[in-house]
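Here's what a typical entry looks like (Aminopeptidase N):
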Amino acid sequence: MADIQSTSASSPIVVRRRDYRPPDWLVPTIDLDFSLDPARTIVRASLSVTRNGGHDRPLRLDGDELTPIEVKVDGRALGPGEWSIEQGALVIPLPGPAHQVETVVELAPEQNSKLMGLYASGGLLCTQCEAEGFRRITFFPDRPDILSRYSVRLEADQARYPILLSNGDPTEQGELPDGRHWAKWIDPFPKPCYLFALVAGDLACNSESFVTMSGRAVKLGIWVKEADLPRTSHAMQALKDSMAWDERVYGREYDLDVFNIVAVADFNFGAMENKGLNIFNSRYILADAETATDADYDGVEGVVAHEYFHNWSGNRVTCRDWFQLSLKEGFTVFRDQNFSADMGSHAVKRIEDVRVLRAAQFQEDSGPLAHPVRPESYMEISNFYTATIYNKGAELIRMIALMLGPDRFRAATDLYFERHDGEAATCEDFIRAMEEGGRIDLTQFRRWYEQAGTPRVRASLTHDPITQSVELVLEQNTPPTPGQPDKAPLAMPLRAALFDRHSGRSSGETLLMLTEEQQRFTFNGFAVAPVLSINRGFSAPVIVETSRSQADLAFLAAHDDDPFARYEAMQQLMVNALVGRVAGQEVDETAVIAAIRDTVNDPHLDSAFIAEAIRLPSEAYIGDQMVQVDPDDIHAARDALQRRVGKELEPLWRDVHARTRANGFSLSAAAKGARKLRNSALIYLVASGAVDGPTVAFSQFDEADNMTERQSALATLANDRSDEREAALDIFYNRYRDDALTLDKWFQTQAFASHPDTVDLVEELAGHPDFTLANPNRVRSLFGAFAGNQWAFHHRSGKGYRLVADCIIALDKLNPQTAARLVPPLGRWRRFDEERAALMRGELQRILSQPGLSKDVTEQVSKSVE
Ligand code: ARG
Ligand code: ZN
């Protein structure tokens, strides 16, 4: 594999999957010694290196912004002519088959604004290494197929950094003169360097114990600032539940004596699965009723599970190279999705996951940054932590699991874990284990890993009254994506059922395997044309096109026994009405209103499902259904339909809002469902135009004993001008100004508001004293939310584009990884009218013309601008 170096933006190196070569040198052990200090940290590394195969190539140790202070081989200090630096890497010619190499470097964690490598966050020192941050800490062959045993000694000022943590198990500790102390950690499991971590700081611990299936006691610790301790109980429960679930469902047991989690305030993404020492964005650890919404609670549970599950899918079995990233991420997302479904509602979890897939992955797959689940090349691997690798990757595993059924899937994952334990594996290894353990041929299925783009499946049903049969014709095609003009047909499992329109029942579900470009399926015994329910449970990650009438959709919305299909029928009903409105066509909306009313009144449905089903599709999703997105018309259409549903069913919304009012806070499924439904009712009630709308919303805001109701009332108020809006925003700010995670919501709610002045407000908020580019959560809550607000971001003045581009340019100098995440919304210019497209491209060009642009932003912008 070509080494990936930090390089100047003008000549970004492209890394290709087919260039993979096994490493020249292996590193069986590494001893690290850190003398920690925010301004000046000294890192001494001692590596045992062994030549891998017969070659005479030098040892090459990656480095990024590192200068060696000392280089020793087998105890002898090398002179300046005995090593060299090439593109940041330390290159040392070595004579023998095995040597001991020592290096010393100096770091300044407090200067590290990229938040990769060793950095300072709110008085802590912590690390982030995946994907290529370890090379910012010490010289090392920074690639995941080098597995080493780590022993780590940490030394720091005892008063400032009383807690010293690293991977594995703690072994010794002691005190030193000058108020310093030290601790030693040994990780018995060989691991790639991206899983290395250390934390030093003044932390308090929520400590509990878990007894594994073989009876071993594991000490669990969640480390946070003292004041945050009361907010860690949900995360702790999630951790214990995850450990038990992985034993029960996959037979996977935890393998060290301690498992630590640390929450940090400044973090580039969600969390990191470092062996035995997970490091989390604090937003995925801290939760209490005062500050966390139900969605936040679910986020904590899901991310804690995700990182814990990586201990097997990621750490015990890791990736050979970064092209295999979905091997661990897709599989682990699949595992955390199923865990969350088991902990709550399968139906609602599936709906939420599909909504995310469509919003993030389908958009990605239809734009300039589309790439396969196993990409062929990259400039900057950080740009490939995408919805495609994660969420589409999870859908591929889901399809395999569906085709195998639970028992064979379990046999196949058992084989995978056994066969590759302690190895750096590939997606191909995983597929083979599925084939052998699950007794299935996945030859054609492999294309899912190679082809980008969302397949479209056209389904048409014809009924023959003479033979009393129906014929279902399925046709698939996958549109071209960058570098892939022609696509081959994919193998996809489609769950389907045919419903009798009189009894409202189906004769049962069948699993159709679509493998050809066009395929026909015949079903007998239908005197009357049935109604087709297809891709039930969203069994394949595709776009299904049918020509079902509004009446058929209304029928399914009332009768389908698959909750996802039922939700989907509702969505399609609404989409048809909304797209019709945008096109200026008369679409009968009474079916939509009736379906919403009947869904709310259906006594067999639970509240959480009802809330999902009656929610109008987002403006972005409506835009995705159209060749050219008109943000203003879409907003107007959705707003008008929302007002109509609000007005026509006003008494219903009043009633639902009143009867879902709780007495005391609980996290039970019923209580969460009630809150979700209450919020939908509030949205429609306010949309109805009832004069007391803002007052009702304000009282909900004011009286709520939980953040779910408080924030959703605030969000509803934020959409319109009213005195209540200003009052609520002020109260919220003053109540939470000292709590960063909650203040994020204040920024986010305003940036996401459907308010005509949002774009100006965002500009103002970017200058607010509490706004900072140094904290990724804050940046995402303002600019991330804004760029996802279709109507506001695409303001025809182009001001929204300029604001986001300004942010990218400024942030790139501090934190390129987080800056690059803001590029994709600007890259979707092909989907908009000429004026908007020109403005969007103009901003992309302006970004690209900045001197010293990072590799991260260069890759995203240059791919998007063409
Ligand atoms: N492995 C981590 C997770 O999904 C995420 C690491 C993201 N790294 C990055 N460079 N974006 O759990
Ligand atoms: Zn992950």
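The longest strand covers residues 180-191.

More examples are in the samples folder.
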